[in-house]
Amino acid sequence: xxxxxxxxxxxxxxxxxxxxxxxxxxxxxxxxxxxxxxxxxxxxxxxxxxxxxxxxxxxxxxxxxxxxxxxxxxxxxxxxxxxxxxxxxxxxxxxxxxxxxxxxxxxxxxxxxxxxxxxxxxxxxxxxxxxxxxxxxxxxxxxxxxxxxxxxxxxxxxxxxxxxxxxxxxxxxxxxxxxxxxxxxxxxxxxxxxxxxxxxxxxxxxxxxxxxxxxxxxxxxxxxxxxxxxxxxxxxxxxxxxxxxxxxxxxxxxxxxxxxxxxxxxxxxxxxxxxxxxxxxxxxxxxxxxxxxxxxxxxxxxxxxxxxxxxxxxxxxxxxxxxxxxxxxxxxxxxxxxxxxxxxxxxxxxxxxxxxxxxxxxxxxxxxx
Length: 369
Hints:
Blueprint: H1 5-27, H2 29-55, H3 64-112, H4 120-127, H5 133-159, H6 164-171, H7 175-217, H8 222-232, H9 238-254, H10 260-288, H11 293-313, H12 315-326, H13 333-339, H14 364-367
């Protein structure tokens, strides 16, 4: 069986384009990551606005977007309040945990045969945290500057959304091409909304179940840990590892004379994550996003290497958008097929908006909403 030279040349061009695109994404990550996050937030706010119009028929359409923006700000403020209110007590309790942590270190050292166990103070001195003070300050400064840049991008995106329909008409004067472009945009938008819906629902399930278990065990700051587990759920795979490991570790510190609370908490969290991750999430994700589970893991690693934490947070919606775009061209459709769950990367399942969203509308006006 011979391979056509034209196919080989086309695949070589696609491979070089992928390499060049990845290098460009990495080189321009300082500019593109805030823009990608702003687009993600804009889609989330637009989804809130359409849900308000759909769920409340008498709700004024002109007030939907401002109300969605205020709702997003309120949710962000609530998140900050939960972190600050519970984080302050958490930091205060860490002082009381120091002697208990020394006991845990001594028990672990005795199990591995270390005669003289180090204290937490010795470990901190060996780490020499002053070396990382400059790097931590620089990271905080970069985070603050990126947050401001994201807000600036978000403001301009929201302000310019009304002209999107006219731009589509100018770019695609023929109705067939225009309808195809609008349909692709709607599928990408629905894919991001489906991702938000899936991660929010599964994150709430995990957080509520974990909170109940932590309350039964008696772990301190159960609400704080549940909130962190909910936020971590938006990072595929890695968030589950964080949620399973950190609370049991602090249970060891809180209950230094018994391993049972930490063991019970670890087993319960593993069961929760197993049920949600292997039963609920694949069913929801396979039926809507049409993403292969292996691709989800690979996209987490690739986007994390390119854009860091922001890339890991946006890995799934970015990969869905890439898959839908690649499926539009004959030369790259084979890549989209490999990325999909069922071998059909056309995104037909994404023609249906997520639960609570407004029904699909055809035409340029729907795309500009």
